[in-house]
Amino acid sequence: MRRSVSVIWVWDRAGIDFELWQNWKATRGIYFISRTKDNMTFTTVSQVAPDPDRPIDPNILSDERCLSSQGTEVRLIRYRDPVGATVYEFVTTAFHLPADIIAWLYKARWNIEKVFDQLKTSSTRSRLGQPAIRRNPSKRKFLCLAHNLLELFEVHLENDYRICNEAGLQRREKGSPNTLPLPGKGYAVSALLTKLFQPLQCSIKLIRWLRSTGSPAPSIADPACLARSYAHS
Predict the structure, then answer these.
(1) Over the range 17-38, which residues count as b (16 or more CB within 10 Å of their CB) and which as e?
(2) pTM above 0.85, yes or no
(3) How confident is the model at residue 152 (pLDDT cuts 50, 70, 90)?
(4) Per DSSP, what are the bridge partners of residue 33?
(5) SS3 for the chain, per residue?
(6) What is the pLDDT of residues 77-129, one digit of tens each?
(7) 106 and 90 in contact (C-beta within 8 Å)?
(8) Order of strands, sheet of 60-68, starting from the edge strand that comes earlier in the sequence
(9) Average of pLDDT values for 13-18?
């Protein structure tokens, strides 16, 4: 890997070899983001100063420069989920990113994992079969490719035809962090969670409409047919 290319790896509680990560950061430009484990110990060295040009996220409880038990310098961020009020601890070698961006990247990684779980669940009801998918990397890549193509096609429909899943958007807004009731909490919500919140699973209405495009009846394949279907829950 070229040193000029920076890469961020986001892991689920897998950052244990801090010396290795520090070496990869210094020699290859590879950074990692993970969550802490219960048996990890850190010594605080100093506080990481927030960027004065960015709004302060009140859910960042602390942002510290620390030393791991191996003596490696890492960054420790404590973040409070504004919806459930759960506090998460993130450990990273990325000192150049704002703390709220690091929290959002981990959330994005978790959303991707949910998509994988959905693909595995749906594969048990399909011809592909879950055991076959686990044994065949090509099928796993095909499922990811198909999912991403459907996401891009939905963007195309919205941009070029002004067709969007209105009923799905309404359901998503009801469950989005900026509209969820937070009794007794009153925590502010970062724009990263409200502006960049994305649905995880493609609409079944879109899939059914795509299957019908091979039908001899032009009205079924007409984009207006999908628009009418999207308009109703």
Answers:
(1) ebeebbebbeeeebbbbbbbee
(2) no
(3) confident
(4) 10, 92
(5) CCCCCCEEEECCCCCCCHHHHHHHHHHHCEEEEEECCCCCCEEEEEECCCCCCCCCCCCEEEEEEEEECCCCEEEEEEEECCCCCCEEEEEECCCCCCHHHHHHHHHHHHHHHHHHHHHHHHHCCCCCCHHHHHHCHHHHHHHHHHHHHHHHHHHHHHHHHCCCCHHHHHHHHHCCCCCCCCCCCCCCCCHHHHHCCCCCCCCHHHHHHHHHCCCCCHHHHCHHHHHHHHCCC
(6) 999 988 788 999 999 999 999 999 999 999 888 877 777 776 666 665 555 55
(7) yes
(8) 7-10, 30-35, 87-92, 73-80, 60-68, 42-47
(9) 78
Assigned token pair, 202: 């493609």
Token pair 């009846």 is at which residue?
217
Task: Show the tokens assigned to 223.
Answer: 């984009």
Residue 65 tokens, joined:
């420069």
